[in-house]
Design goal:
The protein is about 45% helix and about 5% strand. The protein has helices at about 30-45, 60-65, 85-95, 105-130, 135-155, 165-175, 195-205, 205-210, 215-225; strands at about 20-25, 50, 70-75, 80.
């Protein structure tokens, strides 16, 4: 894949994608970028990917997005950024196999579950990754309590119904990364979270998830480089 290694400070700005071509600016281990990669895979959209070093960001990347975060989409001179915005945009410009709900009530329901995730879960996930030992019990309880809201919200095989949809793809990247919490003693338990555990198994069977998946050991290795202060965005790539 062209530009698979992360481009960093001092790198030359790549030429714009050709007419009608779609480009994704990403980072291999970013869960928010993975949301958009899942949409692209599920919809079968041809695109090119340019990975960005988020520790040493290329100067030209700030011209693509003022917040200098991934994902970013570029097509025909137009730029779109932020994962949820990117995903709805993809459904808009590639309406075949639309993933975003068309029903206003269902769209609102999925947005509310995602709001619960943001408010009750993800903050404590990130805190647990770097928590000191004496901080772990309280943070783990808050994290587990938050996950219970998500467990209760899962009433069908997938969050989006009988098949995976927008909410499933937007949540999945974080579940793929739960392995990095093993060092603090957390693992997703079938006894405690039977519905989420079954959902994880279903998601793992999907071709689009397999196409975007990194094994636990790679996430753990990357996490260690992040905690060291020198993230290795190219970890796992062959020379």
């Amino acid at each position: 894949m062209p530009y698979e290694r992360a481009m960093k400070t001092g790198s030359a700005c790549p030429p714009p994608p050709g007419p009608g071509k779609l480009r994704l600016y990403s980072q291999r281990f970013c869960p928010y970028a993975q949301r958009t990669r899942l949409f692209l895979a599920a919809k079968g959209i041809e695109h090119e990917t340019i990975n960005v070093n988020l520790k040493e960001k290329p100067e030209w990347f700030f011209e693509k997005t003022p917040i200098a975060k991934v994902p970013v989409l570029e097509k025909d001179g137009k730029i779109v950024y932020e994962s949820l915005v990117c995903n709805e945009y993809l459904d808009g410009i590639y309406p075949d196999k639309c993933i975003t709900p068309s029903d206003p009530l269902e769209k609102a329901r999925q947005s509310m579950v995602l709001a619960l995730w943001d408010a009750k879960v993800v903050e404590f996930y990130y805190k647990l990754v770097t928590a000191k030992e004496d901080e772990r019990p309280a943070l783990t309880k808050q994290f587990v309590d938050g996950l219970q809201f998500i467990e209760n919200a899962l009433t069908q095989p997938f969050f989006s119904g009988d098949k995976a949809g927008a909410l499933d793809y937007n949540l999945w990247p974080f579940f793929e990364r739960l392995c990095v919490l093993k060092h603090v003693g957390f693992e997703l338990s079938v006894d405690q979270f039977p519905k989420l555990s079954a959902w994880v198994e279903r998601m793992m069977q999907l071709p689009e998830v397999k196409a975007c998946y990194f094994p636990p050991e790679l996430h753990v290795q990357f996490g260690k480089t992040m905690m060291s202060g020198s993230p290795d965005y190219d970890i796992g790539l062959k020379e």
